[in-house]
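Session log. Operator J.P. requested a structure for one protein chain; no other inputs attached. Running the standard single-chain path with token output.
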Amino acid sequence: MPRLFPAFFVLVGCAAAKPAVFNDLRALDTQQSYRELVGRLKEVAPAQRDSEWEAPWLEARAALGIKAFGWTYSNYRHATSDEQWVPQLVAFAEQDPVTKGLAQRLGRDLVLGRLVASSAWPLYALALQRDGDAVCTDEKLAAVVIDVIDYQSWLDEMKALVTGRCAAQLKGPVSEKLKQNDSKSFRKGACQVLAGQTDVAEALKVCE
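Structure written below.
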């Protein structure tokens, strides 16, 4: 079973180095030959590294990390009360403030499809913090939010998201789910989230 190795998580930038090294690293980055690129980063001395090179190397780190975390999923016991894999994904994303969309990709491409949708919320929360309102348009976000509400978790955050920041994308799906009235736990959570929203008064009738 392939496993993560430390080099995935310590990619850093490099600046003025020998021209041959610069050219090789640029070429490997362009070719997305990230494994070879990682192996050659050590050829650049610490004193020669510069923030100019941080973004490409963090992108390489992100690409390798996404693949590697997919391999390591089966190494963990996945239980609601003892989930250790997702926190590692969150920590991985937190360590990279540069690569746009990383937290969102980790949540969408790795967590969803492997675990219940609400498990991806910590990564989507980080994505909203880092990448802004563009995350609202993610077609998977509604499923994550509905599952979070069903678990009656983070209800204050869900209310702010569903009735405010991402209302255009989320209020409709949440109210439609509420109208189905097929889950007692979701009804209880959604009634709190949508309370006072007159434009979904029809859906709120099930809360009476």
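Operator note: The radius of gyration is 21 Å.
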